[in-house]
Specification:
The chain has 6 helices and 13 strands. By secondary structure, the protein is an alpha+beta fold. The strands form 4 sheets. A 6-stranded mixed beta sheet has the order 3-5-8-9-10-11.
Length: 231
Amino acid sequence: MTLANQPTSPILPLENGDRLPRVEFERRYQAMPTHIKAELIEGQVYMASPVRARKHGKPHAAVMGWLGNYWFATPGVELMDNPTVRLDTDNEPQPDACLRIDSVVGGKSRISEDDYIEGSPELIVEVSASSASYDLHDKKQVYRRNGVQEYFVWRVADLVIDWFSWQNGVYVNLPVDGDGIIRSQVFPGLWLNVPDILNFNLPGVLTVLNQGLTSPEYQQFRLYLQSLRTT
């Protein structure tokens, strides 16, 4: 029996390092100010630091410009900026970006009724300070265990891009060809000139991407997605 005037317990704020189940993490997160960014990784809360302009904001914008052009060209593919992703009971990251294939055309993730991603997007992107970041340790293991097909990390301080491909349960680096280009194995035509993006040569980045978008493998992929959307 509940007393009519019994006070309800306050919702405690999230604190960096809290150990919480995902349901409680979400309850507290929803009560936080909207500018606060938090993630749950292996049951532990990580609160984001203020975002630096050139060490994070600018690389993030460059990645979004590259991925955005692929998204605009490709039916059945969605690009998300800083989405909350419900991976499992102990992990709810908020990656810098993700590129997903719509579940209608065979994608592994779906959009929940309350508008969150559930399951593993095909490509997750993180802009990271260096190899010391948890993006390349705890998060990488979480994404690998949940079968995220490709994981892209821009290590800004190291001037390095790691683009991992999930193969037989482990992550391996996608190869870089002699021209400095990496090609996605999950998203045909998603080509990246690594030296160009590291130097913020965006016209060069888009030139190589457009070459990918005219490749036979991309045209076949695009037609395949279109056929599934119309059936």
